[in-house]
Amino acid sequence: MPPLNTSRPSPVTFLLMGIPGLEHLHVWIGIPFCSMYVVAVVGNVTILAVVRAERSLHEPMFLFLCMLSITDLVLSTSTLPRMLCLFWLGAHDIAFDACLTQMFFIHSFTAMESGFFLAMAFDRYVAICHPLRHTTILTHARITIMGMIVVIRGIAFFSPHPILLKQLPYCRTRIIAHTYCEFMAVVKLACMDIRATKSYSLSMASIIGSCDAILIAVSYAFILRSVFRLPSREAGFKALGTCGSHVCVILVFYSTAGFSIFTHRFGKNVPAHIHIFIANMYLLVPPFLNPIVYGVRTKKIRERVLRTLMVKVA
Fold it and tell me: Residues in domain G-protein coupled receptors family 1 profile (predicted)?
């Protein structure tokens, strides 16, 4: 990594541009984004409340689901409110320290999201391929350890990002061509050789994302093999339906995140508005879809919510 030049002070504020070329549509783009955020907050809070209140749901699958819900709440709340202020109120200014804080939460919790997808895939693998040993393999102590490893990994790999940017000199424009403080968008504003810094960030994201995605694919491959061996076709179709919806959410997350990573590395000709729009999708869509796929489609959670609503109506 090149030596850091601290002779120039860090800027007091940055200016978020939004989606370049689509500034005239910011107000309209904010409407579906806000709707997705509301669904994400209500859905994930509902999952947390239901699992906390229902002791029968204190199982590995639902405990991992709660960890994923907390991650989704932090991830969406660290981006959407500030983004809506930009779209609807024209609030382009963001303090330098606030920008670095937002960046830390976005990148570290995106890594945690990936880790919890892997943990849930492993849970499904054990539940379907080794059902008799499910509760003995995934004890509460092991679930806690797995959750801590995912959190520590996200913090350890991405806490250097804001520290590195804090040390860089900035002598170019203060305008960030993005809707939020993404590392690659901010580091471009530094007036020094940033190739090593960019390579570090892309390498960390690529290693974590690819390793998690490969292990998830292996888990579901074993799951599919076990499902096709089930004697009951009805049970097989039920398992395929459940796993299929999970795989769809995972594919949305990894395809959009992967597109963003590869665009930074190879996609010099990809229009900026397409890149930034898709970069927003991998932060907005999973928190929006997860409560629907993992919550509404889960019979125990759905029945508990309906029972609670019926009691309140009565």
Answer: 43-294
Alpha-carbon torsion angle 122, 124, 130, 134, nearest 10: 80
Under a CB-based contact definition with an 8 Å cutoff, are residues 282 and 257 in contact?
yes
Of 14, 7, 13, 16, the residue nearest 192 (C-alpha): 7
Q: Kindly report the CA angle at 206 between 201 and 210, in degrees rounded to 5?
A: 160
**Would you put residue 120 in left (φ > 0), alpha (ψ -120 to 50) or beta?**
alpha
Q: Which amino acid is at 17?
A: M
CA 247 to chain centre: 15
The rounded percent of the chain whose pLDDT value lies above 70 is: 89
CA distances for 215 relative to 65, 190, 260, angstroms: 18, 36, 21
Amino acid at 70: I
- Paired with 14 in beta bridges are 94
- Residue 194 contacts residue 188 (beta carbons within 8 Å): yes
> What whole-number distance in Å separates Cα of residue 204 and Cα of residue 133?
34
Angle (deg, nearest 10), helices 96-129 and 140-158:
150
Other C-beta atoms closer than 10 Å to the C-beta of 44 total 26
Query: What CA–CA distance (Å, rounded) separates 194 from 171?
Result: 14
Confidence of residue 113 (pLDDT cuts 50, 70, 90): very high
User: Order of strands across the sheet with 13-16?
Assistant: 93-95, 13-16, 175-176
Is the distance from CB of 185 to CB of 165 less than 8 angstroms? no
Strands (E), 52-116: 93-95
pTM for this one? 0.89
